[in-house]
Structure formats: C-alpha cells, structure tokens
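pasting for the record
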Amino acid sequence: MSMRAKGMVLLSLGLGLGLVCASCAKSEEDVQEEFDTIVAESNACNDASECVYASPGCPLGCFVAVNSTKKAVVEEEARALIEDYERWGRACAYECVEPGPIECTEGRCQGGDSP
C-alpha cells in the first residue's frame, strides 16, 4: 500500500472515530437525568438542619437541596457532568435568584419557595 493510500485510510478512520465520539456526547437531558439520580441518593434527612444548598451550575440548576454530608460529592459530580456536556462545544449560562428556605419534607431535603 502506498503512503498516500495509508494516509487516506488513517484519515478515514480518524473521521469515522470523530463521528462515533460525537454521537456519544451526552445530551442536556441525559446529563440532567444522571444528576437527578445523584441528588435523589444525596438528599435524605431527618431534620432541616441536615440540609444545605449545593450549586451545580448550568445546565443542572442554580441550587439543589442535599444532605450537608453529601454537598461536596454532589458538586463534584455536577462539575464532571458539566465538563462532559461542554466537551463537545456546548455551553449555557443563566442568572440565579436567591433560593428560598430549605426544608426536610418526608425525609428529603427540598428547597422552599423563594422570598
């Protein structure tokens, strides 16, 4: 095989792999679904004093109520999901308002209404 033919094969393989990787990019919905699962596993409480707000970032939201012992993990997982989302050139931004009071309702940390 000539050097030119080898180069064309490698170019074709590279383009094909690029298309495969692009199709592996997670959608905003996929990232949000994964994050929702992480939050659901991290927001158990017995009292509102156990709850804090974590700040995941766009596109995952401004604030999410979680157990204080899980805040760092939730924010770390959010950063990883956002990095994966942005890896393919996507980005978003929004302004956040002050969150309402935090509550422990039915064993789950939840944000109350904004003031």
